[in-house]
Structures are given as C-alpha cells and as structure tokens.
Write a structure and sequence with these properties.
Helix content of chain A: over 70%
Shape of chain A: elongated
Order of helices and strands of chain A: HHHHHHHHH
Number of strands of chain A: 0
Largest interface: A-B, 44 and 44 residues
Oligomer: homodimer
Structural class of chain A: mainly alpha
Radius of gyration of chain A: 18 Å
Distance between the termini of chain A: 61 Å
Strand content of chain A: under 5%
Chain lengths: 186, 186
DNA sequence: AAATCATTGTACCAAACGGTACAAGAATTA
DNA sequence: TAATTCTTGTACCGTTTGGTACAATGATTT
C-alpha cells in the first residue's frame, strides 16, 4: 500500500467530479473509481464524508478566486485588474467547458448545505468588482449595478455555453461585457 | 381508489420538485410523497419512469415559453413584445425564487439526457429575441449580441438571486437589461 | 348488469447508496 | 530495530434507489 496522495491532491480531482455530476449525482463509487482512492483513504481524509469533500472543494475554489481575482480587484490598478479578470475567468472556466460549481450548487437543494460559502463567494466577487469600478471612476450606484451585471453575465454565459455546447458564445459574452466595462470607466 | 389526476395535472407538480431538488436529487419516494401519487399511478402515466417525467416537464416548459414569450417576440410589435418579456419572465421565475430548470439541467451531467430539448430552448429564445431586436431597428450583429446578452443575463440573475437569497437582485437585473435594450432600439 | 378499460395501492426486487469497522501495510520517530 | 503513527483495501452494515408485478377498485361502455 502506498502513501501517494495528500488531502490537498485529492481536492482538485473531487472538484472536477462534482462539477460534472453535481452534488447528488456524485456517488462515492464514482469518486473511488475516478480518484483511484478507496473508501478507506477517502474517509481518512474527509471524516465527514461527501459533505466534507464538497466543503473542501468550495473552500479551495474560494481561495483561488480570492488570490487570482478578488484581491487584484481590490488592491491593484483598477482598469488592469478588471482586464485581467476577463482573461483569468475565461481560462479558469476553460472557455465555458468548465462550469462554476458554486453557481450550480446555488440552483438546487444543495444550496441549503452550503449557503454560507455560496453567498460569500458571490458577495465578495461583486464587492471586489464594485471596488475596482469605483476606483476607475464609476459612481457608487453605477459601480454596484455594473458589478452585478458582470458577475451575472459570467454565470449566464456559462449556462448558455453548456446548453449550446458552444465555447465561442462564452468567450464572446465575456468580450461584450468587457466592452461595457470599458465604456463605463473611461 | 379514485381517478382524480390526469397526466397533465401531474406535470406541474413534477416541475416544482425537479426545480427544487435537481434531476439526481429527485427520488421516486420524494415524488410520491409530494404528489400524493403512488408508484402505480406514476408508472401508469410515465412508463419510462423518472426520465420520461423530466422529459414531460421540459416539454411543458417549452410549450409555455413558446406561446408566452417566443411567439410574441417573433410576431407581435417588437418593442411591446420585449417589454412584455421582462414582465412575464419576472412573474414566471417569481422574482428569482423559482429557477430555470432548463438552465439547471444544462450545468451538470443531466444535460446528456436532454441535450436536444435544452439546446432548443435557448436557441429558440435567442432567435426570437434577435428577431424582435432586428425589427426594432438593431443591426443583425447588434441584435445577436444583445439577444445573447439578455438571455444570459436572465440566467445569471437567477443564479445570483438564489445564491444570495435576494429577490431584489433579480428584478433589479431585469430592469438593467431592459434599459440596455431600450437604449439600443430607439 | 355485464364486460371492458383506466387507475391505483401494496408488495417486492436487485442494485446502489453513504457510511463504518478494522486489520494490515507503509512511513516516521525513538 | 522497536514502537508509533499515518494510510489504505476489503468486507460489511442498514437504507434507499429506480423499477416491476399484479390484484383490486374506479369509471365507462355495451
């Protein structure tokens, strides 16, 4: 028996599984089959079972967005951070081939289990984006409206891209949003 | 034993259950408990089981959107039909308390089962909206972009409203979109 | 009223579910 | 090397899953 994995190595694998199958659709047998880890290992790393696994995935996602998206929006040059956001988001979601797990969890009953993490994720995204827009010259009201429109637009573009099996519509939607932001901050 | 229900009476009940729990999260026991119908009745109306139930729900949704949203957008006065769309969509989704089942199905593996119906729903919505925008004076390119932005914006607003447990953000997002459309069609 | 058809509740099925127990092997420390 | 801790595979648990069979009752037709 080998000691190959650490908890941190498993989380990204779990993330991909939850993304594809959803919370209820992800069974322990699918997890063992796709991670190669038996139930022994799984319950050793995540004593709380499936719920703890999904929780760890959400925390991991949150940490990534915090450092790659939110913090730059709050601290760095506003226009540059916004421009970087479009690029990073397009990469992160693989041009729409990958979905937003937080958004997906929000849509069904799974939300009840993780409402705090789900709410936080979007509150902080909108807040960080609003901060950047304010610094870039938008009025408070305009910054709030535009920030909500941007985040909602990304989530909607993911739905559309998956529904139509079309990556181009995702990238195109981001470009449209980017243009709106540029028009409002010059 | 009574003969109360018809197939058509069950479909809206099923729709609400699938909306709340998702496809995988919806078990036959939850269905029997919330519809009051035993497995006997259920499999009598839907011999194909859960998949046929969800298929019937999607067909029902599609029919509603066709008559209430798409057809007016294609046939009636363009500006009026667009204005009516925002109102009808806000009502249909109960200000964001209700989600779009088609969008939710698109996000996870459930898409594989119903990809044709899911794709159709969004293609026809975008197409109808583009038609109205064109008739209202938009260029072909602008109409396409704006139609995609509108449908994506609605889907994203549903995600946000559910994630934040906030109805106002949904209604507010629709108003923002409506203003964009008005600015582009005058 | 007899016969037919539509509807329904109950009992049942094998398979899969999430989770637990635990002994045995690996890695680390003493 | 001995003791200890960290990992892992396997077997097992009770429950729930989607689905089937079928008899019994309701409504409808003849």
């Amino acid at each position: 028996m080998k000691t190959v994995y650490e908890r941190a190595d498993v989380v990204p694998l779990l993330a991909e599984i939850f993304r594809e199958l959803g919370y209820e659709g992800t069974s322990l047998s699918r997890i063992t089959e796709r991670t190669g880890l038996g139930k022994g290992s799984l319950y050793h790393f995540f004593p709380g079972g499936k719920e703890e696994m999904a929780g760890a995935v959400l925390a991991d996602i949150d940490a990534w967005f915090e450092q790659a998206i939110y913090r730059p929006l709050r601290q760095d040059d506003a226009r540059q951070a916004i421009a970087a956001m479009w690029v990073n988001v397009n990469d992160y979601f693989r041009s729409g081939r990958r979905i937003c797990l937080v958004g997906a969890f929000a849509l069904d009953d799974t939300r009840e289990r993780f409402s705090a993490a789900i709410g936080d994720y979007f509150i902080r995204w909108i807040g960080a984006l609003r901060s950047a827009l304010s610094r870039a010259g938008c009025s408070d009201e305009e910054a709030q409206t535009l920030a909500e429109e941007g985040v909602a637009g990304i989530q909607g573009a993911l739905v559309l891209a998956r529904a139509l099996g079309d990556e181009m519509i995702f990238t195109r939607s981001l470009e449209t949003l980017a243009k709106r932001f540029e028009a409002a901050t010059r």
